[in-house]
Write a structure and sequence with these properties.
By secondary structure, this protein is α+β, with helices and mostly antiparallel strands. It is 34% helix and 35% strand. Strands 2-3-1-4 form a 4-stranded antiparallel sheet, covered by helices on one side.
Length: 65
């Protein structure tokens, strides 16, 4: 399953990498890709959407599922 979440506050490649690494640490995530221009992150796997939002917010960004 693919889940797309909105992520606000990413301004550079490092921000994208930070979000991707945070998402990849969630149980059930097989792959994550962040796109600062689209203000989105796409996650492949079967992780809980609330958990995805939580880790992105913990990394310092605003997120909504």
């Amino acid at each position: 399953m693919t889940e797309t979440i909105t992520v606000e506050g990413m301004s550079c490649e490092h921000c994208e990498q930070t979000v991707e690494e945070a998402l990849e640490g969630v149980a059930g995530v097989r792959d994550a890709e962040a796109d600062r221009e689209a203000e989105q992150a796409t996650v492949d796997g079967d992780a809980d959407p609330d958990a995805l939002v939580t880790v992105v917010e913990d990394a310092g960004y605003d997120a909504t599922a």
